[in-house]
């Protein structure tokens, strides 16, 4: 996320690039959290520890891919007022969303049977076996030990909106912008607007025709565009 952070900084933003628990060097185990909802708690702790909770500060929460899904989770949940604005970049919405390509375009494999069993147990209030991996990503982890190759059930559940994603997104009251590339390999970008816009008047969507999935945080043209979208939002 450093290239995007630098573009935002050039545009005048004070940027905090958050290493979410379970990723990089954060948390006890890579690809896992202690319990469902721990990332939400971490967000509260971050704002408190950094002083970003000051109401005079204009706060935008921004995230990419699965992090974009986390942005939508916060924007549509009980902590929505923690931020003034939300920017979800090529976000993962839900497994049954029209925006998701089959098997995420080959970038991820999901243990469907295990997901069904664990989600059923969760509905009965049983947090059994939630540390088991349910998603594996198309990487062998080489090139650095900080790469997360799999998500446990409880990390995945902590990153996502949930099965009631349509109802939750319909409750969004803060401005939430979705940006994606028209050549995204994981998601069907053409489906973002027709899927999300009818759910809430506060959701907007913009598709950049020439960009693929990773381009949004790697291509200088894309990071500049995102920084301009952020800058415009601070003036509204």
Q: Outline of this structure?
A:
The protein is of the alpha/beta class. The chain is built from 9 helices and 7 strands, in the order ααβαββαββααβαβαα.
Describe the structure.
The protein is α/β, with parallel strands linked by helices and 236 residues long. It has a single domain (2-9, 27-51, 61-235), classed as Rossmann fold, CATH 3.40.50.1820. It is 34% helix and 14% strand. The chain has 9 helices and 7 strands. The protein has a 4-stranded parallel β-sheet, sandwiched between helices. Strands 3-4-5 form a 3-stranded antiparallel β-sheet. α7 links the parallel β6 and β7 (203-208). The longest helix is centred in the C-terminal third of the chain and has 16 residues, at 220-235.
The total of beta strands comes to 7
The shape, in one word, is globular
Low-pLDDT stretches are: none
Name of the CATH class:
Alpha Beta
The biggest sheet, with number of strands, parallel, antiparallel or mixed sense and barrel status, is: 4 strands, parallel
Over all CA atoms, what is the radius of gyration? 17 Å
**CATH superfamily grouping:** Alpha/Beta hydrolase fold, catalytic domain
Secondary structure elements and pairings:
Layout: H1 2-10, H2 38-50, E1 60-64, H3 66-75, E2 85-89, E3 108-110, H4 112-123, E4 133-137, E5 150-152, H5 153-159, H6 165-169, E6 175-181, H7 192-196, E7 203-208, H8 215-218, H9 220-235
Parallel strand pairs: 1-2, 2-6, 6-7
Antiparallel strand pairs: 3-4, 4-5
Helix pairs in contact: 1-9
